[in-house]
Design goal:
The complex is a heterodimer. By secondary structure, chain A is an alpha+beta fold. Helices cover 23% and strands 29% of the residues of chain A. Chain A contains five helices and eleven strands, in the order E-E-E-H-E-H-E-H-E-E-E-E-H-E-E-H. In chain A, the strands form three sheets. In chain A, strands 2, 5, 8, 9, 10 and 11 form a six-stranded mixed β-sheet that branches. In chain A, strands 1-3 form a two-stranded antiparallel sheet. A two-stranded antiparallel sheet of chain A has the order 6-7. Chain A is elongated. In chain B, 34% of the residues lie in helices and 14% in strands. In chain B, strand 17, helix 14 and strand 18 form a beta-alpha-beta unit. Classes of the chains: A alpha+beta, B alpha/beta. Strand 3 of chain A pairs antiparallel with strand 1 of chain B.
Chain lengths: 215, 664
Amino acid sequence: MRRAGVPIAFSQGFTPHPKISYASAAPTGVASEAEYLEIGLREPVDPEQLRAALDAALSPGLDVLDAVVAQGGSLADRIEASHWRIELPEVEPAALERAVAAFTAAEEVLVERMTKQGRRTFDARAAVMSIDLIPPVATPSEAPGVSCAILELVVRQVTPSVRPDDVLSGLRVAADLEPPVSPRVTRLAQGTLTAQGAIVDPLDADRDGASIGGR
Amino acid sequence: MGIMSVPSTTPRPAAANSVWPRLEPLLPQVTKPIQYVGGELGAVVKDWDTAAVRWALMYPDAYEVGLPNQGVQILYEVLNELPDVLAERTYAVWPDLEKLMRAHGVPQFTVDAHRPVRDFDVFGVSFSTELGYTNLLTAIDLAGIPLLAADRTDADPVIVAGGHAAFNPEPIADFVDAAVLGDGEEAVLEITTIVREWKAEGSPGGRDELLLRLARTESVYVPRFYDVDYLPDGRIQRIVPNRPDVPFRVHKRTTMDLDAWPYPKKPLVPLAETVHERYAVEIFRGCTRGCRFCQAGMITRPVRERSITTVGQMVQQGLEFSGFHEVGLLSLSSADHSEIGDMCSGLAQQYEGTNVSLSLPSTRVDAFNIDLAQELSRNGRRTGLTFAPEGGSERIRKVINKMVSKEDLIRTVVTAYTNGWRQVKLYFMCGLPTETDADVLEIADMAHEVIRAGRAATGSKDIRCTVSIGGFVPKPHTPFQWASMERPEVIDHRLKLLKQAINADRSLGRAIGFRYHDGEPSLIEGLLSRGDRRVGAVIRRVWENGGRFDGWSEHFSYQRWVDAAAEVLPAFGVDLDWYTIRERDELEVLPWDHLDSGLDKDWLWQDWQDALVEYEQDDCRWTPCFDCGVCPSMDTEIQIGPTGRKLLPLTPVNGLKVPTAAPQ
């Protein structure tokens, strides 16, 4: 922010903090194509100029795609679901298919994870809206010539949150699926859910608001 | 409010010799994986094939400690500015990743392009403390390089040690190929030139010839070219060259004119949390205050100031490049800079209202320090105030040559309280030469009086002080290099008595915090700092038994060191006590006598004798030369201002910094 010259607002108090809040950040070790954040500014700026300035200041690989003026409401409230892709190198698609079928058939799949509050057990099944095997693309992983199964998931935002690794734990619980090497997980999208189960860009509401507001 | 989406895409493509494809799958299984990823602002990745000389630079501690290290950052930048030279960084990996790397055959790697350390020409390791020695062994071993320098081939990099601990590299003499004493800026360039020429000639004579060329500079120490003979009682008889073409003594390097070396210009901005996140500028190097325990003050002489205008320019460019909002004005005694007043008020004025905070490590115990702190806190941010009387009693302060009276200290701290500080930190050492229980117990009296006087002056009970105690470790090239250490039991007992004395008055005791270190790690640091080549066997045994990260109390095991010493030292007729609690006499050959810090050994001995009779030594910046020997033997001189210049107000640059040609 400082290098981009963003006129960021600071919280009041003894140790002022810049007003930045991240909505539903991806877990450590997970790639993402769709992260969102909100920043508070001291003065209005042109969103496209802001985008370009921040993009230039950030490391390669962290690309700022879009910026819009918030029209009110919380960004976090608009994050209702995430779309994930999980690549599972050295997993046979047939084995994965069986595991997915068992997971889908179950009413509830209890998994465990260490959280900040300690070890917790929760259901990984209910939040999963869809779980699909997709055909492998040409070179899905960096290890050529190795079989690789690929999953795509749409998971609703719940508390405690159900993350891709929880779903993988669920596949282990439901069908003893043990990936031999670390899976590669990418968040493809997150945002508001439509009645049809599609994910809508959470910034759309602000774009609509802007046009209604006559800007 | 702006809202934007920040996707991350695949970073730069991996280099040809990158271990990244093998490392990446291990990272989800370790703590804080981001420390191994690289790609920080300020990081440089250059083409491997077109580089004539390739350096891997290591700070042998975790990333969070190693990344902010000034020495490594400066050398990294100086080397990478050369078009045909490539420098990358590597840090100590935590035991969780070490285990996985061994299991999956991943070698020690650089964080910049994840290249194997063994592929480099030179592997430079900077030691601020001897407690990094076991981490050196881990890195060498993980790199696939033979542990012993004698076993290495032309396929291995030349391992060069630097930093303050390199002023006595004898304990690691078996593991390193060379050591450089003193300032690194020019030394790395000279080494680079020698390596470049030797490679261009087709590497004639192999590794031995390269090391010989380095040794001939007389400022690179190559331990294999020197033999150590011992007396029947275990003391060293002599250390002499074992071939005719290397110098009897190796001299330290001194970089003069710091204005000509304004580094770091492009400081590294860490992606993971680190111990310091600030732009640090050295405002001067060297110190002639003459505190007798202080190795840094002794081995970095003479004083060389960076001018107020260069400091101002560095701060401006460093902040603009990095986006840091904290500036540290570093040196061994920052308030002693000849233009510190103008520097502090000038910077405070330039950055008023910008959320940039300025800090000055405070070591001087006088009111001037508080004036400076006042200036620096103009932005509303109050940095902590630390005063370091170092010794509890007037007597022991004369022994260590830290000239401050109890009255001065109390007056200074009370001034801080009346100026709005609610908390100050007082720093002392325990285990100093000639120290008795009474000397240490006076710390309690001093702390009590500080609180009493502070309460009286402010009329408030809401003031505190923290007493922080460090363990004294005698260091090479200081007047205390001959001193005996106190046993850890004695230190721990003294600290217990001190704690009781502080809390003897419950009202005052409640306002005093007490922080200290146990005596045991200091004793081991003492073994390593004054050790000779025989101590290398102890280091190796400790490492083989799992010793790692000895500077971290949760990883350090005293017992492991005691056991290893008991196992390997008796074969040499010596033991742990012999290295630590034994006082040396004037004529004993010390393991570092052939390494020249510029200090005259006779002067050091005289200063040691003066210490024992509690005779103080002035500072040669303000009083006549006292012949410590550095300036004439190193052909250097004190470089101080004032220049008389002032810092001009900055023109504020407002608005977004949008790139003109947006590369997408």
